[in-house]
């Protein structure tokens, strides 16, 4: 959890400010921003199926440390990048390291959790991401407001990632966590076919979060006239995520995964709708709380459902499948969000978020829930 907090803190301290950095440092247009930022997600997406295969086939601790080392090193590349092209290359390559690291870290976490409390444990493990999301954007925005130096943010991210790598080095895994079956090389080694609909459903939710996370600051300023409340928005979002994980622990312990996911999709839909259609400060600060409560239920519920339709020797593949689907959604959100903002405005981009969230919610209730119940193994 500590190492996972570090890697996501390093990620989130930069994420809300990178569009501003690209605009102020390189004069990038909105659609170019979308392309540059989407590169990170694309390489994360491409690396995760391979990473899932590798952590299932080889020594997981070694894979974990190699991916963390790469993730750490690339932060220095941001400081060295002196042009938009170089920055785009570093950012794109960094996504591959991030993709491999998140798969390896979550798979190792599942390995060390007691089987009887795995559903609950994955929920608590996700708190490390929520705490990072609560603190990092606010810290990043404060550093930029007081210093005006993006380079300092890159150095802070580098140091935090280094601390997380040192912590992960201390993790001790059993010498043999499972018996790995030798299967022929096929698409099933890289993608969990038994959970394909869960993955498709997650794409819709990832799209919404991709637009929100990357374009909130600019949307707030240009459309709503909010210039100082972005940090509070992320704090409230994270508060909702944290509260859900703590309050929902009993339900996870009892295995009520479909119920948790259903409540989460409805709360998120309400949150996005309020954010887009209630253009006042009350809606602006109520929406992130509801979105946080919703996504705090959706993510661990879908992760547990995906793991529960996979065999014991496919945990890495199950994790990578869900993370890939989230990456696809996030990448589409970042890319299409930038294109829509450039040509028809940020208001239209955020209206598309509500449509995608509603579509994902309807898909879950009509199809995905029964799909999981028919295929669950435990």
Short structural summary:
The chain has 378 residues and is an all-alpha fold. The protein contains 15 helices and no strands. It is globular.
Please describe the structure with a list of short key phrases separated by commas or semicolons.
single chain, mainly alpha, 378 residues, 15 helices
Can you characterise this structure?
There is one protein chain. The protein starts with a helix and ends with a helix. The longest helix is centred in the C-terminal third of the chain and has 30 residues, at 346-375. It contains 15 helices and no strands. The model has no long low-confidence stretch (mean pLDDT 82). It is mainly alpha-helical and 378 residues long.
How is the secondary structure organized here?
Blueprint: H1 2-12, H2 18-26, H3 30-57, H4 60-80, H5 84-112, H6 118-125, H7 127-147, H8 150-169, H9 196-222, H10 230-247, H11 249-253, H12 257-277, H13 281-308, H14 315-343, H15 346-375
Give the mean pLDDT: 82
What's the gyration radius in Å? 19 Å
Structural class: mainly alpha
Globally, the shape reads: globular
Helical proportion?
over 70%
Count the E strands.
Answer: 0
Distance between the termini: 25 Å
Beta-strand fraction estimate = under 5%
Helical run tally = 15
Major sheet attributes = none
């Amino acid at each position: 959890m500590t190492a996972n907090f570090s890697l996501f803190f390093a990620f989130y301290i930069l994420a809300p400010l990178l569009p501003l950095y690209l605009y102020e440092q390189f004069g990038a247009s909105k659609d170019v921003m979308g392309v540059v930022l989407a590169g990170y997600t694309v390489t994360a997406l491409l690396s995760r199926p391979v990473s899932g295969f590798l952590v299932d086939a080889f020594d997981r601790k070694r894979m974990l440390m190699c991916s963390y080392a790469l993730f750490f090193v690339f932060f220095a590349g941001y400081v060295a990048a002196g042009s938009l092209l170089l920055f785009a290359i570093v950012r794109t390559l960094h996504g591959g390291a991030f993709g491999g690291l998140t798969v390896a870290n979550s798979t190792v976490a599942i390995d060390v959790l007691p089987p009887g409390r795995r559903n609950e444990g994955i929920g608590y493990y996700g708190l490390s991401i929520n705490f990072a999301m609560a603190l990092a954007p606010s810290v990043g925005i404060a550093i930029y407001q007081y210093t005006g130096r993006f380079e300092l943010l890159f150095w802070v991210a580098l140091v935090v990632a280094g601390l997380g790598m040192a912590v992960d080095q201390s993790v001790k895994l059993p010498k043999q966590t499972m018996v790995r079956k030798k299967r022929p090389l096929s698409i099933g080694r890289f993608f969990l076919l038994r959970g394909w609909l869960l993955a498709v459903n997650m794409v819709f939710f990832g799209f919404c979060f991709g637009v929100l996370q990357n374009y909130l600051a600019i949307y707030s300023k240009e459309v709503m006239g909010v210039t100082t409340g972005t940090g509070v928005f992320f704090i409230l979002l994270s508060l909702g995520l944290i509260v859900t994980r703590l309050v929902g622990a009993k339900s996870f312990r009892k295995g009520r995964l479909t119920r948790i996911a259903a409540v989460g999709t409805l709360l998120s839909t309400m949150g996005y709708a309020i954010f887009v259609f209630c253009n006042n400060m009350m809606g602006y600060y109520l929406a992130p709380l509801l979105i946080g409560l919703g996504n705090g239920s959706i993510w661990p519920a879908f992760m547990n459902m995906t793991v529960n339709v996979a065999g014991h020797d496919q945990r890495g593949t199950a994790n990578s499948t869900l993370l890939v689907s989230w990456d696809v959604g996030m990448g589409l959100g970042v890319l299409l969000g930038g294109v829509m903002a450039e040509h028809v405005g940020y208001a239209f981009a955020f209206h598309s978020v509500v449509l995608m969230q509603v579509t994902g919610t309807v898909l879950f209730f009509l199809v995905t829930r029964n799909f999981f119940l028919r295929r669950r193994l435990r």
